[in-house]
Design a protein that fits this description.
Number of helices: 6
CATH topology of the largest domain: Helix Hairpins
Structural class: mainly alpha
Strand content: under 5%
Largest sheet: 4 strands, mixed
Number of strands: 4
CATH class of the largest domain: Mainly Alpha
Order of helices and strands: HHHHEEHEEH
CATH architecture of the largest domain: Orthogonal Bundle
Distance between the termini: 19 Å
Shape: rod-shaped
Length: 259
């Protein structure tokens, strides 16, 4: 490449178009991957979310089991107290003591009934959660398998394209370093603002490539003279003549073939 201080407008246009060809090639590689990396990320998030949900469900089930155990212990204690108070009633000295023990017995029997009610409720919750857990596990297995397939698919694509993409990115960076800063800034601004990433386009059949707005004949002559940087007034893209574009495509195709 020529030094910046020695570069003619034509040199700059060629380098800019070469950079565009390289970046477009990178875009093509990334388009092959398409939405796959995002799909993998979404699946990873979903699988992680399902694992977290299952962990919480299992913890809640364990908590319910512990509550059942606690209520069963309470029932045993209450039944033991009922037996104790019943025995004590046999040896009371007056009605006041008898009635007091009767109230204690009644209270403990109510405690047993309430504990048994809670146990039934806890068991019903466990059964309901079991269904949710089973469905969540089934969903987790299905999404995990899908994730495994998508990861394998992505890995295969990356294996095929990673070396080429890395080489092209290095080339893109080298060209960017060799082109004067104001042109690179303009190129980057245009490239990020247009849908197809085309910042430098050739004239095709009298129109701007990528936007298809007709270029006046006098402007086409100026573009073909390669004496100044000309942009499309409609899209803002930098314009090059078809002959220059064809020459650079042939040159870069040979470079790409060696990657």
């Amino acid at each position: 490449m020529a030094k910046k201080t020695e570069a003619t407008v034509e040199d700059k246009l060629r380098e800019l178009y070469n950079l565009q060809l390289i970046d477009s090639r990178i875009d093509e590689i990334r388009n092959v991957r398409g939405e796959l990396p995002l799909e993998v990320q979404d699946l990873e998030d979903e699988v992680e979310g399902l694992k977290t949900r299952l962990s919480k469900l299992d913890a809640h089930s364990d908590d319910l089991i512990e509550k059942i155990r606690s209520k069963k212990n309470l029932i045993e204690e209450s039944k033991a107290l009922v037996t104790k108070y019943t025995d004590q009633q046999k040896n009371v000295r007056n009605n006041r003591e008898f009635n007091s023990l009767s109230k204690e017995i009644e209270f403990q029997e109510l405690e047993v009934e309430l504990a048994e009610k809670h146990i039934r409720e806890f068991k019903a919750q466990i059964e309901q959660q079991k269904e949710v857990i089973d469905k969540s596990k089934e969903r987790l297995d299905e999404r995990a398998n899908h994730l495994k397939h998508k990861k394998s698919e992505l890995a295969e694509i990356l294996k095929e394209t990673q070396k080429e993409e890395e080489t092209l990115m290095k080339m893109s960076d080298d060209y960017s370093q060799s082109i004067e800063e104001r042109l690179i800034k303009a190129y980057t601004r245009i490239r990020t603002s247009v849908k197809n990433g085309l910042a430098v386009v050739p004239i095709e059949r009298g129109a701007s490539g990528g936007s298809y707005f007709t270029i006046p004949p006098q402007v086409q002559v100026e573009i073909a003279s390669r004496k100044k940087i000309i942009t499309d007034e409609h899209s803002g893209r930098i314009l090059v003549d078809a002959a220059l574009a064809y020459e650079q495509v042939e040159q870069m195709d040979k470079v790409f073939a060696k990657i």
